[in-house]
């Protein structure tokens, strides 16, 4: 590999560059593969420190590829293509001993390819988990409706995980703002089951412990029928037909009076 370094490296770059389809430049790819090539040379030469550096470099490349949207096959082929580049040179030499050395080299490259695949899979799972958490945060906004009154407008399907995020986000905002009232509006929620209803009740109870009164608004007829059929008790938690009604209730409780309208 040392005597034919430039030829093998050029061929390796040619084989890989077609697979990346312009997502990274050829110069970036060449720099990346040159670093790997140097580490492979050192590790196959017996440098134990280089073997660790090689695995660390491959791990970082796999994580980057996962974030850039490469597939696991596209990531692994960047390593496996080196075997073809080396084999072509071994064939050109035609030395039986070189073929024997290539077998051992090929086994080592396979291990490196599997490492990239495993690292890619773990990194991809982490990316998906991060995106899911971000979507949950985006889908559970807590907004200020009035001084001392927070609103939690919920849209779409509610499940236990999302309802848990609602509670955590609301409680954090209550700490930040010191609000005395919160309106949980479920106008945009198509259905509520027993588990979700229990989470909402727990959210209201937790807010009360922090000195905040909550009101639930926007309960659709279908949801009201479900709540009755399931025997869910909201107890003394106030409910209102619309967000406007709930805001009016909270403003009255806070002692806020609006003066306006034509001629006022």
Automatic annotation (TrEMBL):
CDD domains: STAS_RsbR_RsbS_like
Entry-linked PROSITE patterns: STAS
Keyword tRNA-binding: no
Gene3D superfamilies with a match to the protein in the record: STAS domain
Residue ranges annotated for the STAS domain, each copy included: 139-250
Name of the protein described by the UniProt record: RsbT co-antagonist protein RsbR
Annotated organism of origin: Actinomadura luteofluorescens
Pfam families per the UniProt record, alphabetical: RsbRD_N, STAS
SUPFAM superfamilies: SpoIIaa-like
Keywords noted in UniProt: Phosphoprotein
Ranges annotated as spanning the membrane: none
